[in-house]
């Protein structure tokens, strides 16, 4: 009995743009897709061979090559999907879909994620993961704002995005920092050439009762090139080649990593408007703190506010006593960054260096606040000193 072809029907139905800003793997894979669409199977096989010559352990390309060899014996129009495909083949089909989506429906390079409203000036690169596209994007931060400089295919948790507890095999949603690097000599083969641990759980995770640990960006075993889009225990996984390339953009302890179910891509005007609204809210809070009018200051805080173990009632009482003992206050904020919390469009993450001066105390600290829109107004719901 002839083996049923599983990948060519999927590949042959997809169109490619004339030009796509993609990496080498997607370019070579895309060349083969284009040839399959036009029934140039010999040329498609040549493209796949070129891909496998460079990446011999790329399992998806190996199976597509097998289909191409079989397809020479029958017209492409007769190829159909077989019922009861094995789980591993289903996963490889999902990988094929994700890679082709990056080629056939690329994100407009003029767009940026609405989640990245303001990156602090001395942070050169920020990483954003879009699980819906199985892609990791790198943005460079410059005087003119941020621009996309790289993107990679990635794998996330077996059960998707939205980690809540240890062992749920989900990848967390939120803003994290790369805390260190683990070289391959210190790792099991599963993790490939290295790993970058992330700061999960962060303060927002803790507040919301999320637990677990060991969320990393890492590579793959050397006997494979990539894993299916959802195949990790919660980590974000890249091919070893891509992980090595990503390293040039990472600064340990500083590089932010934002993980989203689906990034909200927007134009410059939409990003600017959202950024200006939040920056104005932060500046109004700063000015009202300087005014020593405690009533006005407390209007900027949610009734659900927390700062460590302190809740709104105790915080408000403390502010009244402290402000009453001062004749003047001066607040300066530097290194300000503003992100939108993934999957929570009305929650923002604001981080800054705070230089506090008053008639009886001077203090410098780095703070992170979570702001939430309540009844049309942005208010602080959580504050942490970093």
Summary of the model, kept short:
With 386 residues, the protein is an alpha+beta fold. It is built from 10 helices and 20 strands.
Task: Describe what you observe in this structure.
The chain has helices at 8-12, 24-37, 41-54, 59-71, 87-104, 203-207, 240-246, 268-290, 294-298, 312-324, and strands at 112-113, 116-118, 125-130, 135-142, 145-153, 156-157, 174-177, 182-183, 194-197, 216-218, 230-232, 236-237, 256-260, 265-266, 301-307, 310-311, 329-340, 347-358, 362-374, 377-385. Helices cover 30% and strands 28% of the residues. By secondary structure, the protein is of the alpha+beta class.
Low-confidence stretches: 1-5, 12-20, 76-86
How is the main sheet built? Answer: 7 strands, mixed
Secondary structure: number of strands: 20
Number of domains: 3
Radius of gyration from the alpha-carbon trace, in angstroms: 25 Å
**Succession of helices and strands:** HHHHHEEEEEEEEEHEEEHEEHHEEHEEEE
Helix/sheet category:
alpha+beta
CATH architecture label of the largest domain: Beta Barrel
Beta-strand fraction estimate: 25-35%
Lateral arrangement of strands in the main beta sheet: 2-17-18-19-20-15-16
Categorize the overall geometry. elongated
Q: State the CATH class of the largest domain.
A: Mainly Beta
Please specify the SSE layout and strand pairing.
Blueprint: H1 8-12, H2 24-37, H3 41-54, H4 59-71, H5 87-104, E1 112-113, E2 116-118, E3 125-130, E4 135-142, E5 145-153, E6 156-157, E7 174-177, E8 182-183, E9 194-197, H6 203-207, E10 216-218, E11 230-232, E12 236-237, H7 240-246, E13 256-260, E14 265-266, H8 268-290, H9 294-298, E15 301-307, E16 310-311, H10 312-324, E17 329-340, E18 347-358, E19 362-374, E20 377-385
Parallel strand pairs: 3-13, 6-11, 10-12, 15-20
Antiparallel strand pairs: 1-14, 2-17, 3-4, 4-5, 7-13, 8-9, 9-10, 15-16, 17-18, 18-19, 19-20
Helix pairs in contact: 2-3, 2-5, 3-4
